[in-house]
Design brief:
There is one protein chain. This protein is α/β, with parallel strands linked by helices. Helix content is about 50%, strand content about 10%. It has 14 helices and 5 strands. It has helices spanning about 5-10, 30-40, 45-50, 50-65, 80-95, 125-130, 150-165, 180, 205-220, 240-255, 255-265, 270-280, 285-295, 300-305; strands at about 70-75, 100-105, 140-145, 165-170, 185-190. It has a 5-stranded parallel β-sheet, with helices on both faces. Helix 12 (about 270-280) crosses helix 13. The radius of gyration is 22 Å and the shape is globular. The N and C termini lie far apart (about 65 Å).
């Protein structure tokens, strides 16, 4: 593609559109610019809401694959890639997932998190190589992320994954995008032109973050990683999370502090096991067996203990 062709393509994208009404923004006061920016951001949740049916369908498909042992993989370049890596990195401490269970791939590799890697986003082949290194299989899911919906790295990831029978999701911020068309589940959250022309780390980035929050969080709810709205699979890896674990057990059981400390100690810090022992009176090994038999779903384990 020539530079002229690329320019014409970019000019056709909603996310790249120029807004003459904001041409004097640099002359405004800081407070007025902040008000403008805040007003622009306020429209993002509505744009996401318009795509909730597609988001929900994708989540159900992702959860079905992950329940069979599949992985969730994000693939993107620049801001989109960083958002995928961020979402993936937050799953282990929040939901006690294996770091290999939710993976973020960014064009150019880890150094692209903090610096631009020239040309990486233009390579479909690079995406194929990155996914091949992970041994992609049919129970896995690949979510391509691209504000424009035209980024070759994201499209290449989705095309490669779909050819191997993996589930594919294309998350873009323009309608009729090549990325959404390439994926089994296309999600196009149209947020309109940016405050700063072409700076898709703004509204488009916010929209992508909201959707990724939904994809990972609701998938984990479906997989039994929560009990109600409590993070019962939280990994207590620091003082804050250990305190949070004790609070979660207290909220779920109403038990006294001494009982909670004893239950957590005997369960090796496993919140689900501690809750199960406190609510049902079963011993530690029985709690572990019930949870294993229920696939880690605390509600199912509680029901089994009651029979």
């Amino acid at each position: 593609m020539t530079s002229h062709d690329l320019r014409s393509e970019l000019e056709s994208l909603t996310t790249e559109a120029f807004r003459p009404d904001l041409a004097e923004i640099d002359r405004l006061s800081t407070l007025d610019i902040a008000r403008l920016m805040n007003g622009e951001d306020a429209g993002v949740p509505a744009a996401v809401a318009a795509r909730l049916p597609q988001i929900a369908a994708a989540i159900d498909a992702v959860a079905a694959r992950m329940s069979r042992g599949g992985r969730l993989m994000y693939a993107g370049a620049g801001t989109a890639g960083r958002l995928g890596v961020l979402d993936a990195s937050e799953c282990p401490p929040t939901f006690n997932t294996d770091p290999a269970q939710v993976v973020g791939l960014i064009a150019g590799g880890p150094r692209a998190m903090v610096t631009s890697v020239e040309g990486a986003e233009d390579s479909r082949e690079l995406a194929r190589r990155d996914l091949a290194a992970l041994g992609l299989g049919p129970d896995d899911t690949v979510v391509g992320i691209s504000a424009s919906g035209r980024t070759p790295y994201a499209i290449g990831a989705v095309e490669h994954a779909r050819a191997l029978g993996a589930l594919t999701v294309g998350l873009a911020c323009n309608e009729h995008s090549a990325l959404a068309a390439a994926a089994e589940h296309g999600i196009e959250v149209v947020v309109g032109p940016e405050l700063i022309t072409g700076s898709t780390r703004l509204k488009a980035g916010t929209a992508q973050k909201l959707v990724l929050n939904m994809l990972s969080t609701i998938t984990m709810i479906r997989l039994g990683k929560t009990y109600g709205n409590l993070m019962v699979d939280v990994r207590a890896s620091n003082d804050k999370l250990r305190a949070r674990s004790r609070r979660i057990v207290a909220l779920a059981t109403g038990a006294a502090d001494e009982e909670i400390e004893k239950a957590l100690s005997e369960s090796g810090g496993e919140v689900k096991n501690a809750i199960l022992t406190l609510l049902t009176g079963v011993d530690g090994p029985t709690a572990a067996r019930l949870l294993e038999d229920s696939g880690g779903h605390l509600r199912a384990a509680l029901a089994a203990a009651a029979t």
